[in-house]
Amino acid sequence: MALTDAQRAQLGALADQLIPAGGGMPSASEAGVAGRYLDEVLTSLPDLKAPLETALAAVDGLEPEAALAVLRDDPAAWGVLTAVVPAGYFMNPAIREAIGYPGLERRPIDATAAPDYLADGLLDSVVARGPVYRPTPTD
Amino acid sequence: MEHDVLIVGAGPSGAITAKRLAEEGLRVLVLEQGDWPDYSKATVHREDFPLTAGRDWGWDPNLRQAPGDYPIDDADSDITALMWNGVGGGTVVYAAQWQRNMPSDFRVKTLDGIADDWPLTYEDLEPYYVRVERDFGISGLANDTAFPPGEGPPLPPVPLGPAGRRVAKAHNDLGWHWWPAPNAIATREYGRLHACQQVGTCLQACAYGAKGTADLTHWPRALELGVELRTRARVSELIVRPDGLVAGARYVDADGNEHEARAGVTVLAANGVGTPRLLLLSGDSPDGLANSSGMVGKRLMMHPFGTVVGVFDEDFRAWQGPWGQFIHSLEFYETDESRGFVRGAKWGLQPTGGPFSMTSAYPWGAENEIWGPGFQDAVRGRLGHSTMWGIIAEDLPEESNRVVLDRVNRDADGVPGAKIEYRLSENSRRLVEFHQARAKESLLAAGARDVVVAPFIRSTGWHLLGTTVMGTDPATSVVDAQGRCHDVPNLFVFDGSVWPTSAGMNPTATIAALALRFAEQLIESRREQKVAA
Ligand SMILES: Cc1cc2nc3c(=O)[nH]c(=O)nc-3n(C[C@H](O)[C@H](O)[C@H](O)COP(=O)(O)OP(=O)(O)OC[C@H]3O[C@@H](n4cnc5c(N)ncnc54)[C@H](O)[C@@H]3O)c2cc1C
Ligand code: SF4
User: Fold this and answer.
1) Regions of chain B short of the pLDDT cut 50
2) Name one GO molecular function term (chain B) (predicted).
3) Within a domain: B466
4) With an 8 Å Cβ cutoff, are A104 and B320 in contact?
5) What CATH number does residue B145 fall under?
6) Structural domain includes residue B254
7) Which A residues 29-68 touch B at CB under 8 Å?
8) Residue A111 confidence (pLDDT) above 80
9) Which of these, A101, A105, A85, A108, lies nearest to A38 by C-alpha position?
């Protein structure tokens, strides 16, 4: 089921080309993109495994930079790589925290509050300008 | 005969028709090839939702390949056709941007000298807009200056949000139109709808039951009224009698068994691809059924689409919000020939999504990709700090843009699929370019530090219109102003296939209002209506 250690090492090296350490944050492989979070991504979307393995096999033995150049020209391979890598990276709670992303939250609308644009006159100039449509012609 | 009316398709047009006819005591049967939506898959709070949403709530039937889908060959089309086949139809995944057409949309020939007028006016449709807006729980603010004054939707609009406010101010400075946007999003508890939580996943189904979708707003009541809805019932052809009337339809169930459903009157509500497909599949003539005009399948319109994103210093936390739209602008909607094209487009201001979306080639553009050194700062710069105009452009009807049968690729039951042939016209290209340039000005005026005009992508065919054109002349149109086929007096089309021109608006408000009007007309004329006894 899971990828081999060699495949993971290969993926980690490619992933670090896409997401090197920076901005006070770890690289993709340091964040677990080829480890724990790869497993989570593939559990969520098992259909990604086969195309990922195909992509890795296609560039086996190439240096990461050269490998990336090859994959870039192959839309299917590039698609799977640029799905798996950021998906795994942003699944890591430490990464989400570092970019200030709490995940999707419920933000109920306060329907009782008076709309700000009525209170502060934001719409006034639009209304003052009058109609901006062409009416139905009468023949 | 068990049923008075057979309806093909359980999307909004089919649902509205079924419910209204059942209210009058008509016995209605609806055949729908897909299933009910499974909202347990709307797992918005899971970290993997950006991954699984594409699989579970995808829009492209060719990729999704769900049991209710049929193949659509789009190799010869600049745009791919998108839809959701099941109870609720496209509303299950729609962005809930709820736009009426403007008066000029019904009078394109008279006003702009091109294409055709509709055999009805804005004023004819206005009472039906009001009614469907109540039925779908629409939120918005009445007396938008881009429309004739009148009754607005029942619920207050969604909040402008910090992004909406900022861009609204810029439009005030520019002297450009904007208005709090109309959405099929309940801003408080309303009927069977719950209040929106602004989670921003409208395009991947609403986990909170807050979006006005036909499976929630219409189907429960229609079923209570006695409508019979058969899901996983794929119609393969209409049954044509020797006297030329339609007696109902043949369909295949989930186990592959064939059945016949008979009714006095048949209504197609299968969308701009499904409806012409079914007509082309039916009858003895190689041209299909109801096609003496030769127009069945022709004049396909799908709305070229543009996106312009602005990145700001201000943190809008706009990875979510109603999606939907915060505000809309119709400043450049009406024709101005000095621009080098006719007709126009509607703009809707939207959130841009979570971190995963910040890395994608759309809308950010391959040339702006952020892979490599600086990745994290680039994500932080975009995430929550960006907002985008979605631009819905009007495309003009052209006979060479069309739906035909695909006898090579067939659905799971062996029924031929559809093939679409569609090319962007010069008018469309100029129109989109002009609007992108103005939208860029809008965001720069709002203080964007960076503006990206998204690359053109093919997968934007959310709106499927025009393929059984409505008109008064049987030589040039397929259905009359009642939606009745000129050639077959007990066969009707009540979906967006009947549109003579496409308008530059999200179409569901007008599809819905028109379906309700058609249903009322059918009820009114029922005594004179020819039926297959
Ligand atoms: C991703 C997405 C986003 C959208 N966003 C917006 C938006 O923001 N605003 C807006 O106004 N519109 C939007 N739309 C468009 C909107 O969904 C459609 O306009 C609307 O659903 C059309 O309604 P309809 O009933 O005519 O057709 P549909 O909703 O397409 O329903 C047709 C039904 O017929 C069924 N059917 C077809 N053929 C057969 C057959 N042979 N046998 C049995 N059943 C059949 C289909 O399975 C389907 O359920 C969006 C669409 C998509 C896909
Ligand atoms: S933004 Fe509102 S309507 Fe849209 S999916 Fe979220 S809760 Fe539902």
Assistant:
1) none
2) oxidoreductase activity, acting on CH-OH group of donors
3) yes
4) yes
5) 3.50.50.60
6) yes
7) 40-41, 44-45, 47
8) no
9) A85
Amino acid symbol at B100: R
CA of B495 relative to ligand 2 center, distance in Å? 25
What is the Cα–Cα distance from B273 to B270, expressed in whole angstroms?
7
Domain assignment of residue B532, yes or no: no
**CA angle, residues B246, B249, B254, in degrees to nearest 5:** 175
Pairwise CB contact (< 8 Å): A111 & B156? yes
Distance of residue B432 Cα from the nearest chain A Cα, in angstroms: 20
Is the minimum distance from the CB of B4 to ligand 1 under 6 angstroms? Answer: no
Considering the domain boundaries, does residue B531 fall inside one? no
Q: How far is ligand 2, taken at its centre, from the CA of residue B204, in Å?
A: 9
pLDDT (tens digit per residue) in B219-240: 999 999 999 999 999 999 999 9
Is any Cβ of chain A less than 8 angstroms from the Cβ of B173?
A: no
Chain B touched by A130 (CB under 8 Å): yes
DSSP letter (8 states) at residue B496: G
Write down the mean pLDDT value for chain A.
Answer: 95
Residue B479's pLDDT is what? 98
Closest chain A residue to the Cα of B330, Cα to Cα: A132
> How far apart are the C-alpha atoms of B364 and B385, rounded to whole Å?
14
- pTM of the predicted protein model: 0.98
Q: Do residues B479 and B486 make contact, with C-beta atoms less than 8 angstroms apart? A: yes
pLDDT at B302: 98
Which of the listed residues B62, B80, B83, B281 should we mutate to test ligand 1's pocket, taking the one with most ligand atoms within 8 A of CB? B83
Q: Does B375 touch chain A (CB under 8 A)?
A: yes
Please state the rounded mean pLDDT for residues A22-39. 98
Evaluated on CA atoms B455, B458, B462, B463, the torsion sign reads: positive
The answer for residues whose C-beta is within 8 angstroms of residue B418's C-beta and 6 or more apart is B70, B71, B72, B73, B81, B273, B274, B276, B277, B403, B404, B405, B406
Q: Where are the domains of chain A?
A: 5-98
Interface residue A121 vs chain B (CB under 8 A):
no
**Residue A1 pLDDT exceeds 70:** no
Residue spans of alpha helices (H) in B288-399: 361-364, 375-382
| pLDDT greater than 90 at residue A113 | no
The domain tally of chain B equals 1
Backbone φ/ψ region at B88: left (φ over 0), alpha (ψ -120 to 50), beta: left
Confidence (pLDDT) at A112? 81
- What does the pLDDT look like over B493-512, one tens digit per residue? 999 999 999 999 999 999 99
Ligand nearest to the CA of B322: 2
**Which positions in chain B touch A27 (Cβ < 8 Å)?**
none
pLDDT at B76: 98
Question: Which domain, by its residues, includes B90?
Answer: 3-524
CA–CA–CA angle B407, B412, B414 (5° rounding): 40
Using DSSP bridges, classify how beta strands B402-410 and B416-421 pair: parallel, antiparallel or unpaired. Answer: antiparallel
Tell whether A116 is within 8 A of chain B (Cβ). Answer: yes
pLDDT at B443: 98
DSSP assignment string, B32-97: -SSB---GGG--TTSTTHHHHHHHHS-S-HHHH--TT---EE-TTBSS-B----BTTGGGGT---B
Q: A132 and B169: CB-CB below 8 Å?
A: no
